[in-house]
Amino acid sequence: MIGPDTALARCQDLIQLARKMGADEADAVARASASESVGVRLGALEEVERSESEEIGLRVFVGRRSASISTSDFAPEGLKLLAERAVEMARLAPEDPYGGLAPADALFSGDGVDLDLHDGVDPSPEELREAALAAEDAARAVDGVTNSNGGSASASRSVFALAATNGFARGYSGGSHTFSASVVAGEGADKQTDYAYRTQRHRSDLPDPAGIGQEAGERAVRKVRPVSIPSGKMPVVFDPRVGGGIIGHLLGAMSAPSIARKASFLIGREDEQLFDSAIRIAEDPQRLRGLRSRNYDGEGVASVPRDLVSNGRIFGWLTNVASAAQLDLSLTGHASRGGGGSPGVAAGNIYLAAGEPSVAELIADIEDGLFVTDLFGQGVNLVTGDYSRGASGLRIRNGELAEPVAEITIAGTLPEMFRALVPASDLELVRGLDVPTFRIDGMFVAGQ
Fold it and tell me: What is the maximum span of the chain, computed from C-alpha positions, in angstroms?
């Protein structure tokens, strides 16, 4: 696989080609990845897979008109044709008063932080197989597990490079390692499936694969023979594995492109106290070895640590160049880039700060409630803030986790849920968007 220097050189060559073809401004994004994974099932090798990909995307501006195009053809004639077509497309595009490159004074400069995103470890297929087997074996050893969907282990490397005619030119590489297991518990109509996985930048930061497998087995077993739950309003407690989605909905509503499209329930609420004053939601894009760490965003603007929610209030909107221009806002370093197309918006390494109570203390006074471990469906409207999802988990009775429950729906509105959110103390920074267990009182639960 190519390195950052080669990827960056390709980007620089491509934007120069675009200028020769008549573009006033241009930027190019190159991505490359390579991964190897091994999967086992019931103790036998099931698959060994290796994949590699390389892609480069070009965005050009002719006056206020722009176009984007991408390719995996890196032959000189192919890149020349790409640049020519992009400029031709831009000349036919409608004018966009807000598009453009980031101003030079907003660009990331200096050396930045060494984010330590790649450990240089390239495990052999035999090592991956051993880890996958260890995960599956531990899962199958849990009493009550009756079958397996398999265990797996993988390692990947990636490269990102961005160059633009505003003078920005940077590239970096990263890597990740993953262990996972998925198993079945119960028999016949009572069968239930669950999983566990963990991904880290450095293999040494991963827990033992047997621990991953044991978690998968225990999660599956505790779901066996679920019942329904009476309908009504009650406290709902969210497992960290699913609770991050609630904060993800907040980030989607804070996206400046959504605000510009009038497609966010937060419009008009930006000065409200949306959460309890003790709630803090922070972003740390410079966390060492973080899954979403970066020194700069997809347009070359510096990414900086900040509180997204402090004293219960949001800091503002997450912008890229186009949305900042449309809303007359400053750049916040949240542009995201795929292989082609216009930049979107994404945040890096988000976490809901831990609260004071332990999980046991958080649920101790709940006489009848729900502990959610799985969510289903797409019933979230970010325009209105309405929230309705299928769910399963465990009943809470007299402050203790009790029998499994399934085939239920939980509903509310996101503003009401935010105001009622109370976090526990069990925060772990392992996913890129992390939350502790948290409680929301007064949600409507529809069961039997």
Answer: 73
H or E element at residue 194? strand 192-200
Q: Which of 310, 337, 313, 442 is nearest to 387 (CA)?
A: 442
Q: What is the pLDDT of residues 335-375, one digit of tens each?
A: 999 877 889 999 999 999 999 999 999 999 999 999 999 99
Residues 247-268, mean pLDDT to the nearest whole number: 97
Q: How does pLDDT run across 70-110, given as a tens digit for each residue?
A: 999 999 999 999 999 999 999 999 999 999 999 999 999 98
Domain boundaries, the chain: 4-220, 226-448
Contact 23, 43 (CB under 8 A): no
Fold of the 4-220 domain: PmbA/TldD fold (3.30.2290)
Q: Is the pLDDT of residue 200 over 80?
A: yes
Q: Which two tokens stand for residue 339?
A: 């292989």
Length of the chain (residues): 448
298-334: pLDDT as tens digits = 999 999 999 999 999 999 999 999 999 999 999 999 9
Q: Are β-strands 433-434 and 438-446 bridged in parallel, bridged antiparallel, or unpaired?
A: unpaired
The tokens 């769910």 sit on which residue?
Answer: 391
242-247 — which CB contacts under 8 Å span 24+ positions? 242/372, 242/373, 242/374, 242/375, 243/352, 243/435, 243/436, 243/437, 243/438, 244/431, 244/433, 244/434, 244/435, 245/375, 246/414, 246/417, 246/421, 246/435, 246/438, 247/281, 247/350, 247/352, 247/433, 247/435
Q: Which residues partner with 56 through β-bridges?
A: 30, 71
Task: Give the three-class secondary structure for 218.
Answer: helix
φ, ψ of residue 327 in degrees (nearest 5): -100, 0
DSSP 203: G
User: Burial, 26: exposed, middle or buried (Cβ in 10 Å; 0-12, 13-18, 19+)?
Assistant: buried
Q: Are 82 and 60 in contact (CB under 8 A)?
A: no
Q: What is the mean pLDDT of residues 368-388?
A: 96
Report CA-CA distances (Å) from 393 to 14, 128, 242, 334: 52, 32, 11, 34
Q: In the β-sheet with 44-62, what is the strand arrangement from edge to edge?
A: 65-71, 44-62, 25-41, 145-164, 169-185, 192-200
User: Shortest CA distance to 162 belongs to which of 24, 55, 53, 300?
Assistant: 300
CA distance 292 to 280: 19
Q: pTM for this one?
A: 0.95
